[in-house]
Structures are given as C-alpha cells and as structure tokens.
C-alpha cells in the first residue's frame, strides 16, 4: 500500500482534475478515469479514499449520483451550498455532470 502522504503520479492527475470540477457540478469515478484515459472507477475511488480530503471530494460520485458511503450528509450540505442539481439525496447526474471543459466564471 502506498504511503498516504505521497500521492502517486496517477493520483496527482486525479486530484488535479477533481480540483477543476466547478462548484455545482459532478463527475462519476468512471468519468474521471475516462477523462484521464487511464485507470478505472475503482482506481479513482482508491485515490479519493487515500488522498481526496484536500480537494472537493463531494464532486466525485458513483454513476447513479450517490455520494461515497459514510459521507452522505456532508455531501448534501456541500451540494446544497453550491446549488448542485439533486434528485432526492443524490446528485442529478444528467443535469450536474461536468465534461471537463472550462466554464466561464462570469
């Protein structure tokens, strides 16, 4: 197991992308892997569990819009504050999915 204090180069790429997800938007674990062209949802989840605390982790969700297990309440708080489109207690993945393109910050 990698030391928690030393992210791998792959982990750095995942974390960099997560930092760029705009407020109110989400990407699934699989979306992150697909955008990077490497790894898969499980690898992204592993990176987030080890090193994701310093990035907006609530913007990375399961493909059905559900938050990471054990973080539901905190995710909802962040999502409501950011205006993330919701379907009940999950992100509305169709409305909130970010495709990785820069957005205007008007």
Automatic annotation (TrEMBL):
Keyword Lipid biosynthesis among record annotations: no
Stretches assigned to coiled coil: none
A UniProt-annotated Pfam family: DNA_binding_1
Keywords for this protein: DNA damage
Bilayer-crossing regions: none
InterPro entries, per the entry: ATL_DNA_repair, MethylDNA_cys_MeTrfase_DNA-bd, MethylDNA_cys_MeTrfase_DNAb, WH-like_DNA-bd_sf
CDD domains assigned: ATase (cd06445)
Keyword check for Electron transport: no
Ranges for domain Methylated-DNA-[protein]-cysteine S-methyltransferase DNA binding: 10-68
Identification of the protein by name: Methylated-DNA-[protein]-cysteine S-methyltransferase DNA binding domain-containing protein
């Amino acid at each position: 197991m990698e030391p928690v204090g030393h992210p791998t180069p792959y982990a750095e790429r995942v974390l960099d992308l997560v930092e760029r997800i705009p407020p109110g938007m989400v990407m699934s674990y699989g979306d992150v892997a697909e955008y990077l062209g490497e790894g898969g949802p499980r690898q992204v989840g592993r990176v987030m569990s080890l090193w994701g605390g310093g990035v907006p982790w609530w913007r990375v969700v399961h493909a059905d819009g559900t938050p990471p297990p054990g973080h539901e309440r905190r995710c909802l708080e962040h999502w409501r504050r950011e205006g993330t489109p919701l379907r009940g207690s999950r992100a509305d993945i169709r409305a909130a999915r970010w495709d990785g393109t820069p957005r205007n910050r008007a």
